[in-house]
Structures are given as C-alpha cells and as structure tokens.
Design a protein that fits this description.
The structure is a single chain. This protein has eleven helices and nine strands. It is an alpha+beta fold. It has a domain of 187 residues. It is globular and about 70 Å long. The relative contact order is 0.12.
C-alpha cells in the first residue's frame, strides 16, 4: 500500500508545540523588515481585549471548573457551539490530553481558543491583519489582572513552515492516535484542508454528526501499536453522542461538531493564504523600493518582478477564497451542536436574504462557494496592491470572463449569486464593481 493511503486525519490548530530546540529555528524572513513579526505591536481582537482589561473597561470572571474559558469566549464572542474535541497529544499541554481528557477548541472568524482539563493556561491564537497568527496564553488561576501573554519563538517552531505557507499560521495535520493519545507517526502524516477527502479527515478528533455512507477517521483510538491499514472504524461513523467515551460533563458542550470541523479546515487554510498574500506584497514592495534606489529609478517605479510576485501569491489566495479543489461530498452531512445555525446567523445578507455563510452540506460545504472571510479584518488589511489584484481576479471569474477549468466548480448561477452578494455586502469595492452595478443586478434577477 502506498504512503498516500496510510494517513489519518487530525486537525491541529492554535499553539501546537513539539520539543524542538529554539536554536534549530533559523530566523524567518518575516522577522526582518518590513514585517518584523516578533517585535511588531499586535493589533487584533485579543490585544484589544487586553487593553480593555488593563484600562478597567472589561473584567473577566473566573470559574472554578473552567477557569477563564467561559468569560473569554463571551468577551471575544466565540460561540460555545463551535466546540471541537481533540485527543491527540499535539499541543502545548500534551500531558493533559488523552482520549479520556480531550482538549477543547473553540473559534470564530478572528480567534481560536484551546482548553485542557486542569490545564495551566488557555491557549489562544488571534488573527492579526498585519501579523498573521499571533499566539497567546492566559494563566488558568484567579487574578485581579488576567493577562494574555504573547508567545513568538516556541510556537513558530511548528507554526511557520511550508505547512503554514511559510508564515505564522495554523497547522493542520493528519495522524493516527493510540490509547494514551500519542500520535502513531509511523503510519504517516499529512496536511488537511478543505481539499482533503472526508475519508482522510479527523483522526485524533471526536466527531459528532451524520454523513451517510461516507467514511472518516474520527472517534478512532488505535489500541494495537503494531496496527496497519485498513483499520476498522465502523463504530466511529455517524456518532451523535460521545457519552461513554469520556466524561462530557467536564466540558461546556457534549459535542464535537462535524460542520464546525469542516468550516475550521477551510478557515485555517484561507487565513494562512491571507497572511502569505499580505507579507509577500509588503516584502515585494520593500524590495522594489531598494532596487529602485540602487538603479536610480524615480521613486515609485513599478517593476515587473514585483507585479509577478503579487500575481503569483494572489492567485493562491483567489483559489482559497473560491474553494478551488474542494473535496466533494457524496452524501449530506449535519452537525449536532447548533453550530450550523450560529454560524449562518452571523451574516451579513443581501437584499434577497443570501449570505456567503449559507451552507450547502449536500455536495459541498457552502451554498455559494466564496469564502465569508472576504468580510474579515484580515482581508480588509491586505495591502492595496494585493487587494486590487484579488478584486480584479474575482471579478473576472465571477463575471464569467475567466472560464478556465480551474473554476469549473462554479456554475453560472453560483457566479451570479456570489457577485450580487458581494456587491451588496461589501462597502469598499473598487470602482469597476460599482460601475457595473446594473449588470450585476440584471444577472442576479435573470438567475432567480
């Protein structure tokens, strides 16, 4: 059997650390100007909350069972319904994690939070519009001044590699897990995103939800350390309740929602590409300025090399935003926690009631295959040159000017609907979108 088929899926996010010496982690390009990752001052939802805590505008209550978790979720507007439970020992507090004591992960569009039973800290990663992923922890002990402490070097050992597009990002891996939660790395490892077939996802995770005849590797604990594929996971399919596997009263929710996992896989990939697009543009422009000074060119002279660098990275971002290569569903899927409703209700919606957050869950994840992260601070924070390129390419694809096979998953109806939704829900569109407003409306009406 080829190594390609010897993988199981496990999604790993937030501050995932392995015992690797910092000295082995050479300085990344993003540590130098114009990014200066570790030395730059973050500006994200967590740093804002910390400022409010320091100024006394906000207070966080401490819970004897969960520490600061409930208060932090409320303050950052992270839904409890997003809870997912991972039992692989692949994060900062690995000694706390096992199939009997899984780690809980919660998220919204801007932040990810990890919680371990009796854990020393909450693990937090915030999406920073200019710095990508910024890692924090909060001590799980009562304090008059609870603090989100920023981390750089250690987290970047795993979270700034080719698996995260070479930028501070979120890591998604695939692996089998033994009875104590230890990854069985001898069976292989893979990166997971929305292009990964369901059959390779969710090993090392508990999964609640229905998915018909489709198979996945969630809820699977491998008792035999010498096991080889195929491994029977029939008991892990279409699981609605996790009682009996661990004490679910020790968590805010008894669920580990299947749809939340699917959204997270898309979101982490897209966040990484947004960061890569941001960094690459700023670095290309800084390099262009240096070359112009060396060559004696007038300030602001545009170089072909800069244009190519922006275009190359911009195409990768467009692919992520439009879910190019998404693994197709062969049966309907559904979660159990209420995450689906909570996610959809976050809006925004156009005059016909449509949103990029609407789900399909029959043959694909979203009804309108264009990422809701177009409405995020990370997208809005892209450099003007990159944002202009992405808007131009999105217009070409969605208007039908680009009919290449790469975007064949987008029907004419899909393209028209997405055009109209974006046009009515984004306030900072470039001029050529506004100028063709009537064409967009007519196309939408024709599609109804």
């Amino acid at each position: 059997m080829s190594m390609h088929h010897r993988f199981a899926a496990s999604l790993i996010c937030t501050c995932l650390l392995f015992p690797v010496a910092n000295s082995l982690h050479a300085e990344d390009e993003f540590e130098r100007p114009p990014i200066g990752y570790s030395q730059a001052t973050p500006a994200n939802c967590v740093s804002t909350l910390q400022s409010q805590l320091d100024g006394g505008q906000v207070a966080l209550s401490y819970d004897d069972e969960f520490g600061y978790l409930p208060a932090v979720l409320r303050a950052l507007r992270v839904p409890v319904e997003s809870q997912m439970l991972v039992f692989s020992k692949t994060s900062l507090q690995l000694r706390r994690i096992s199939p009997k004591t899984p780690r809980a992960v919660y998220f919204n569009d801007d932040v990810y939070i990890g919680f371990c039973q009796s854990g020393d800290v909450l693990e937090v990663s915030a999406v920073d519009p200019q710095l990508g992923t910024v890692f924090y922890s909060m001590a799980q002990k009562p304090s008059d001044r609870p603090e989100f402490r920023r981390h750089t070097d250690a987290c970047l050992v795993c979270h700034s590699s080719s698996r995260t597009e070479g930028v501070p990002g979120h890591l998604v891996r695939s692996l089998y897990v033994g009875t104590d939660g230890t990854p069985m790395l001898g069976l292989g490892s893979r990166t997971v995103d929305h292009t990964t077939p369901l059959e390779h996802r969710w090993g090392g995770w508990y999964v609640t939800g229905t998915h018909g005849s489709q198979q996945h590797l969630g809820n699977l604990v491998v008792a035999d350390r010498n096991a080889s594929e195929p491994i029977d996971n029939s008991a892990g399919q279409n699981v609605l309740r996790l009682d009996g596997r661990f004490d679910d009263d020790r968590y805010l929710s008894p669920h580990s929602d299947l749809v939340a996992l699917m959204v997270l896989e898309h979101q982490t990939l897209t966040h990484n590409h947004l960061t890569k697009a941001n960094f690459a543009t700023r670095q290309a422009l800084a390099h262009e300025q240096t070359l112009n000074e060396m060559l004696g060119n007038p300030a602001g002279t545009s170089l072909d090399s800069t244009t190519r660098r922006i275009a190359n990275v911009g195409e990768e971002l467009v692919d992520a935003l439009l879910l190019v290569g998404e693994a197709q569903l062969t049966a309907p899927v559904a979660g159990t926690s209420g995450f689906t409703r909570a996610f959809v209700e976050a809006g925004p919606r156009d005059s016909l009631g449509r949103s990029l957050r609407d789900f399909d869950l029959q043959t694909r994840l979203f009804r309108y295959p264009c990422s809701y992260l177009i409405h995020s601070a990370a997208f809005d924070g892209l450099p003007a040159q990159m944002k202009s390129y992405v808007w131009q390419r999105l217009w070409e694809v969605l208007s039908g000017a680009d009919q290449s096979d790469r975007f064949a998953h987008l029907s004419l109806a899909d393209r028209r609907a997405i055009l109209q939704i974006i046009h009515e829900t984004k306030s900072d569109l470039p001029g050529f979108w506004t100028e063709q407003n009537e064409d967009v409306k007519q196309a939408a009406v024709a599609n109804e």
